[in-house]
């Protein structure tokens, strides 16, 4: 009986939590101290869901009861669904037992808001505290920060959790007003701001006093839902950029809206999940974080939306043909990494390998660079770029014709739905 | 004249073989584990290597001095791939490393070096997978048991990871394909060999009732966390290739 009830709760509360796409367990390196249980830092995906997403954490809600009524959320109070709530001990037991069997890297605990912010936050914190103190658990813990919770509780959360997050959900304020009128951006900014301050302060202190306890070592992250309101990609990336810069977020997640409601304000049930758009946003995010691109290089007033048929780096290159060709044997790393088709790893290898002699096309291939895109944009030993005199539209056609882009295929199947 | 070299199949043994190739100018063309059947060339010599720690250490130190720890580890991982002909490839690369100047191991344009790096990469991928794809089942006497069948011999590469992570629990990870395992007794990890072969069914028979509960809960969780609207079987199978499903309880029916 007891076992069955737990199973049912797990089903309800995992199902309600799955829309939060973050499953990262990296960015922290908690050692296993005093022969306790677990450590973090390995960033392991223990399995993958049938939709191809990494399963690294036990991702559940403490409860799906909620006093709010955000239109885009399955747990909204007006939604007629089964409700459930775990006890603190139940979550602790599940986490420990899943962890010991090597199912997971840790826990990602979120919750609907029942009673009020502090009441909810207190329970989330209690789960983390018990895991750390009673079970000497050093696995990964990600807690949702509840907007409006007191600083004392946020502080405690930071002591036990590796990562904390507040979801922005809707990228623009106008969208938020439309879909979640009870909420406002300011309530989300406040806890982020407080936590950022504590994270920075702890880091500084740790430099002087080694024994300073960790405080949310994996930092903060957030999530935006894509395609629920009518924002442009530029809006989204501007917002992301703002939050990376102002609150020093570690990650921004983009989650294509999955229709869950007949609400007229939202895309109807059966509408396709904007998976390609989501993917392009992640690519843009990477360009900003690892490739040295500024957000307004990728998207600007003339180009407020990302191309779906080609990736944002190629799209940028085609708009800036004057910056090419790049000389593989001479150009600095920063330019090489901007060549469409050359990733960070390949760029590093190129810079390392060219010390031993001039690189030719076949060397690039051996390094693992696919020449399909690259050869329009580079010079290397014994090779001049193909068709470099042709206009961008033509180059794009050549590249697309040769690459049986999987996105293109997916795209056409997605478009055929309309 | 070229030589067929037999060694004991261990890393130390291979390092010894590499030393002796140099010492006796063997021009080894085939290096295989003793007992492996090879077609002998009519005029070829054979040479039997007896593992010698001192010789092995000299090769190791030479490599450390010339190309450093990372490159040495790459060679070791490549060795664990157990790929046919890996021994001779390693020999050639060691010779190249020992002859050349410093930092030759980042010469991505060198055929053999590139080959080693490729194999190293796939062994490391397998290692990473088997930090993930181990599923423990708790037996009635409190030991957490897992069976694996990795493509490469990755047990030596994951031992420390599991020791650090599960420092407070008894566990065994057993490689069914290679018929040996690791046993941790809350202080040290030791190699073990079961005297009978073992399969999942036998494991289930020694499981506690609590084990059955968590096994079921995990399967339910795996189903519930899936988003049907985003179904992408191709991607799923790419991440979790079917050959690994046998020991993943969430993939059981
Ligand atoms: S507050 Fe959170 S859980 Fe509640 S309806 Fe809004 S998004 Fe959903």
Automatic annotation (TrEMBL), chain A:
<dbReference type="InterPro" id="IPR051675">
    <property type="entry name" value="Endo/Exo/Phosphatase_dom_1"/>
</dbReference>
<dbReference type="InterPro" id="IPR023874">
    <property type="entry name" value="DNA_rSAM_put"/>
</dbReference>
<dbReference type="GO" id="GO:0051536">
    <property type="term" value="F:iron-sulfur cluster binding"/>
</dbReference>
<dbReference type="InterPro" id="IPR010994">
    <property type="entry name" value="RuvA_2-like"/>
</dbReference>
<dbReference type="InterPro" id="IPR013785">
    <property type="entry name" value="Aldolase_TIM"/>
</dbReference>
<protein>
    <submittedName>
        <fullName>Putative DNA modification/repair radical SAM protein</fullName>
    </submittedName>
</protein>
<dbReference type="GO" id="GO:0003824">
    <property type="term" value="F:catalytic activity"/>
</dbReference>
<keyword id="KW-0949">S-adenosyl-L-methionine</keyword>
<dbReference type="GO" id="GO:0046872">
    <property type="term" value="F:metal ion binding"/>
</dbReference>
<dbReference type="Pfam" id="PF04055">
    <property type="entry name" value="Radical_SAM"/>
</dbReference>
<keyword id="KW-0479">Metal-binding</keyword>
<keyword id="KW-0408">Iron</keyword>
<dbReference type="InterPro" id="IPR058240">
    <property type="entry name" value="rSAM_sf"/>
</dbReference>
<keyword id="KW-0411">Iron-sulfur</keyword>
<dbReference type="InterPro" id="IPR007197">
    <property type="entry name" value="rSAM"/>
</dbReference>
<feature type="domain" description="Radical SAM core">
    <location>
        <begin position="61"/>
        <end position="197"/>
    </location>
</feature>
From TrEMBL, chain B:
<dbReference type="InterPro" id="IPR025404">
    <property type="entry name" value="DUF4130"/>
</dbReference>
<dbReference type="Pfam" id="PF13566">
    <property type="entry name" value="DUF4130"/>
</dbReference>
<protein>
    <submittedName>
        <fullName>Probable DNA metabolism protein</fullName>
    </submittedName>
</protein>
<feature type="domain" description="DUF4130">
    <location>
        <begin position="86"/>
        <end position="250"/>
    </location>
</feature>
<dbReference type="InterPro" id="IPR023875">
    <property type="entry name" value="DNA_repair_put"/>
</dbReference>
